[in-house]
Amino acid sequence: MKDWRVLLVDDEEEFRSTLAERLRRRGIAVNEAGSGEEAFRIIEAFEPQVIVLDVLMPGIGGLQVLKRVKADHPNIQVILLTGLGTTEEGRELGAFDYLIKPIHIEKLIEKIGEALDHN
Known about the structure:
Layout: E1 5-9, H1 13-24, E2 29-33, H2 36-46, E3 50-54, H3 62-72, E4 77-82, H4 88-92, E5 97-100, H5 105-118
């Protein structure tokens, strides 16, 4: 897991920072973004392998971020986070999978591993 690079994108700062810390404790390199705009800047510098992306965010929403990431960086796997149930549109746009909030850390780590194996 030490060579995993994950970008967490969620506008809920407390949720995002707590999740990031829990991943870091497991040896995963994590960067954080609070918006789609910030995510695009970080992607260029951090070069994540997996993006864990909230669907509903102010400004540029998660599905818009997903669409641009898959167009510009098709090898980055994207796992969507949603509180609303399934997100078939996200899969059609190229998301690897989705998880429903609240998420369990072990399930997220398992899903990140599956996404990395998918490349």
